Amino acid sequence: MSTFFRESWIVFNRQLRMNLRNPAWVIIGMLQPVLYLLLFGPLLEPVIAQLGGNKYTWFVPGMLVQLGIFGAFFAGFSLIGEWREGVIEAERVTPAHRSALLFGRLYRDLLQLFVQAVILIGLGLILGMDASFGGIVLGVVLTLMLGGACAAASNALALTTKSEDVMAPVINVVMMPVLLLSGILLPMSFGAGWLERLSDFMPIKHIVDAVRASFFGDYDSSLLWGVGWTVVLFGLAVWWGTSVFKKENA
Fold first, then answer.
1. Which residue has the higher pLDDT, 4 or 159?
2. Membrane-spanning regions, if any (predicted)?
């Protein structure tokens, strides 16, 4: 186990140095949820007034989940570049655990997501968000697990397709229904009945509800459903990502 962590830490350090040399895409990834928070958040006041509660306490959790999904799903693009430059081939000849090659990259993605989440939450608190410390911590943990699942799936997809031209439209096809049916921007209860029922089959919707519940301090069944789906998605994505890395390095 200590060998695994040492090997994954080496991969993480290399990935982190690459990011620090070119942080532009990290900053760009942070701009979208911040702009949503500043420009779209105030428009929610009459909407959230019908539900009760603070508009930013309702909106920031959705932006956290959006940040975890959209930011992490694009992590695989850098892996395609590494494969094309021969980095993956160079890692193949080392005795490192194949899962360490994945987890080292996940550490980088989760660290980036954590920093972005702290900035987003800090801005939300400045704007008037009202949430307990424990609820924020739980919401961030769920977001990090979801982000880890998306990053692992993105890496697996990258090594499967080995092409940005193939990967980009696949991600767009997945992201559109997730954004529209997960209730990230607006409550699904405000839509047509059939649309709300359809959203119940969207796992991300339950995770969004769980993160919101944690921020509001409502530890009810919606939180349990969200935690369950987060664990399931994380487990499946890590299994897929590890399997692909093992195949690539057989």
1. 159
2. 24-44, 56-80, 110-129, 135-158, 170-195, 223-245
Per residue in 43-72, pLDDT (tens digit) is: 777 777 666 667 888 889 988 998 888 878
pTM more than 0.85: yes
Q: What is the pLDDT of residue 1?
A: 59
User: Distances in Å between the alpha carbon of 246 and those of 86, 90, 166, 210?
Assistant: 17, 14, 22, 33
Neighbours of 226 (CB within 10 A): 26
How far is residue 62 CA from its own chain's centroid?
11
Burial string for 193-216 (b: 16+ CB within 10 Å, else e) reads: eeebebbeebbbbbbbbbbbbbbb
**pLDDT number for residue 78:** 81
Going from the C-alpha of 82 to that of each of 8, 85, 87, 110, 155, the distances in angstroms are 16, 5, 5, 19, 11
Cα–Cα–Cα angle for 216, 37, 148, rounded to 5 degrees: 70
φ, ψ at 191 (rounded to 5°): -90, -175
How far apart CA 240 and CA 99 sit, in angstroms, is 11
Report how far residue 140's alpha carbon sits from residue 16's, in angstroms, rounded to the nearest whole number. 21
DSSP labels, 179-199: HHHS-SSS-GGGS-HHHHHHH
Q: What is the pLDDT of residues 87-116, one digit of tens each?
A: 777 766 666 677 777 888 889 889 888 988
What is the CB-side half-sphere exposure of residue 102 using CA atoms within 13 A? 28
For residues 22 and 80, give the distance between their C-alpha atoms in angstroms, rounded to a whole number. 17
- Provide the token pair at 190: 């405000």
Residues 199, 206: Cα–Cα separation, whole Å: 9
Output the CA torsion 94→95→101→103 (10° steps).
Answer: -150
Query: Which is nearest to 116 in space by CA: 138, 135, 143?
Result: 143
